[in-house]
Amino acid sequence: MENLKPLPKVNADTRQFWDGCKSHELRFQKCTDCGHIRWPASIICPLCHSDNTKWIVASGKGKVFTFVVYHEAYHPAFEGDLPYVVAIVELQEGQHFLTNIVGCDPGEVRCEMPVEVIWEDVTAEFSLPKFKPAQ
């Protein structure tokens, strides 16, 4: 079945991230001058303005920073998912990441809840990182 949900638009800044997701790796840029790990990717560090960077693989573990439960679909392709949780997860490495919380009832989600990444392989080109309660 063809995926009807909107997919990310890949560009030069995000290609390494999405290539990592295809391999089930969460990749982020790290400034090699000040050590800041950043998301979203950019050409310079927002803290020290250096353009020296490398890509790292994150642990995929974190905690729910904040969340909302959607009871209305704002795109028809999401109607079958209702209700669903959109959350900002604070990863162990420090960055905040917008994602979905899956694998539990939406009423069970809470701030500070430990979570870990899982992968939804939606097409041959895209695997989407989502998070579930940590074991």
Structural class: mainly beta
The helix count comes to 1
Q: Give the C-alpha Rg.
A: 16 Å
The name CATH uses for the topology of the largest domain is OB fold (Dihydrolipoamide Acetyltransferase, E2P)
Helix content: under 10%
Largest sheet entry: 5 strands, antiparallel
Q: For this structure, what is the CATH class of the largest domain?
A: Mainly Beta
Note the run of SSEs as H and E: HEEEEEEEE
CATH architecture of the largest domain, please?
Beta Barrel
Strand content: 35-45%
**Total number of beta strands:** 8
Low-confidence stretches: none
How far apart are the first and last residues' alpha carbons, in Å? 31 Å
Counting structural domains, the number is: 2
Strand order of the largest sheet: 6-5-4-7-8
What is the averaged pLDDT score? Answer: 95
Oligomer: single chain
Shape: globular
Can you walk me through this structure?
It is a single chain. With 135 residues, the chain is mainly β. Helix content is 6%, strand content 38%. It contains 1 helix and 8 strands, in the order H-E-E-E-E-E-E-E-E. The chain has one helix at 15-22; strands at 27-31, 37-38, 53-57, 61-70, 84-91, 96-101, 114-121, 127-133. The strands form 2 sheets. A 5-stranded antiparallel sheet has the order 6-5-4-7-8. The relative contact order is 0.19.
